[in-house]
Amino acid sequence: MACCDGCNSKCNEYLSYQVVKYLLIIASIFFWLVSAAIMGLGIFAEVVRRDLGSMNTFLVSPAAALIAAGLVVFIVTFLGMAGALRDNLIILKIFIGLMITGLLLQLIVGLVAFAFKDQAKNFINEQVSKGVKSYFADLDFKNTMDWVQERFYCCGGVDYEDWEKNDYFRCASPGPASCGVPHTCCDRRANPTDGGVVNTQCGYGVRVYERLELVDIVYIRGCTDAVLIWFEDNFDIFAGLCIGLLLPQILGIIFAGIHIRNVTSIVEEEKNKRWYFDRPDGSAYGFQPVPHSEAESTL
């Protein structure tokens, strides 16, 4: 398909075709490689988790989420790349359909989570409660929970009393950790270590005291509320992040739609083009049959 000399509209159309096509290919390849890296990271995390013999809980299955998300993006971006590279309208339409479906699902999940935030909060608390029971057996959950408690200055899911559900910290337990909480619940702000050795027994036996007596000793508030408050305080950042995630998807849909229009227009033009050619009888022009292109065959 070559640009017709002296015809600005056709030249612009062909230029648009080339620019959009290669933008779509480059973007698809980039996100295709990113999705492959995400899948690789998820597979690596899953192998490590299995080697450690960790138990399965909802909150500590990021490996499965990474693999699933990476696989979906890998397939969709591959379709976008293949469709743009081959000017295959069927593949491009499938790509647009999948992109629109994914975009709608993300919006629906966000709206449902916002509309049913109380139910979502209760669900998270239930999952944390399950994880607390297997705190020492599930290294994934233990590491995640310890990090959250230290980072957000919190203890447990609903509050520090959640640790009563753990066999080691239960008040009826005969061990030294009885009626206690993990050391990551200890308030480092009031009792800084200054880089020294952390007292891993600082939370032992603290739950025998009244709630107000524990201020400046351990964190009292639950981690679910602490994390939700942190999200609310940083809402503008997360709003920008959401826009950053949605914008490439919207642009992908728009570019694919423009490319379909450009390819369709060029194919139709090739079908109906009047070509000049010489004939023995001196006639000037007629209709020249044009071979079917791959793009035309996909209409």
From TrEMBL:
<feature type="transmembrane region" description="Helical">
    <location>
        <begin position="237"/>
        <end position="258"/>
    </location>
</feature>
<comment type="similarity">
    <text>Belongs to the tetraspanin (TM4SF) family.</text>
</comment>
<keyword id="KW-1015">Disulfide bond</keyword>
<protein>
    <recommendedName>
        <fullName>Tetraspanin</fullName>
    </recommendedName>
</protein>
<dbReference type="InterPro" id="IPR008952">
    <property type="entry name" value="Tetraspanin_EC2_sf"/>
</dbReference>
<keyword id="KW-0325">Glycoprotein</keyword>
<keyword id="KW-0812">Transmembrane</keyword>
<feature type="transmembrane region" description="Helical">
    <location>
        <begin position="90"/>
        <end position="116"/>
    </location>
</feature>
<dbReference type="GO" id="GO:0019899">
    <property type="term" value="F:enzyme binding"/>
</dbReference>
<feature type="transmembrane region" description="Helical">
    <location>
        <begin position="22"/>
        <end position="45"/>
    </location>
</feature>
<dbReference type="InterPro" id="IPR018499">
    <property type="entry name" value="Tetraspanin/Peripherin"/>
</dbReference>
<comment type="function">
    <text>Part of TspanC8 subgroup, composed of 6 members that interact with the transmembrane metalloprotease ADAM10. This interaction is required for ADAM10 exit from the endoplasmic reticulum and for enzymatic maturation and trafficking to the cell surface as well as substrate specificity. Different TspanC8/ADAM10 complexes have distinct substrates. Promotes ADAM10-mediated cleavage of CDH2. Negatively regulates ligand-induced Notch activity probably by regulating ADAM10 activity.</text>
</comment>
<dbReference type="GO" id="GO:0005886">
    <property type="term" value="C:plasma membrane"/>
</dbReference>
<feature type="transmembrane region" description="Helical">
    <location>
        <begin position="57"/>
        <end position="84"/>
    </location>
</feature>
<keyword id="KW-1133">Transmembrane helix</keyword>
<comment type="subunit">
    <text>Interacts with ADAM10; the interaction influences ADAM10 substrate specificity, endocytosis and turnover.</text>
</comment>
<dbReference type="Pfam" id="PF00335">
    <property type="entry name" value="Tetraspanin"/>
</dbReference>
<keyword id="KW-1003">Cell membrane</keyword>
<keyword id="KW-0967">Endosome</keyword>
<dbReference type="GO" id="GO:0051604">
    <property type="term" value="P:protein maturation"/>
</dbReference>
<dbReference type="InterPro" id="IPR000301">
    <property type="entry name" value="Tetraspanin_animals"/>
</dbReference>
<keyword id="KW-0472">Membrane</keyword>
<dbReference type="GO" id="GO:0031902">
    <property type="term" value="C:late endosome membrane"/>
</dbReference>
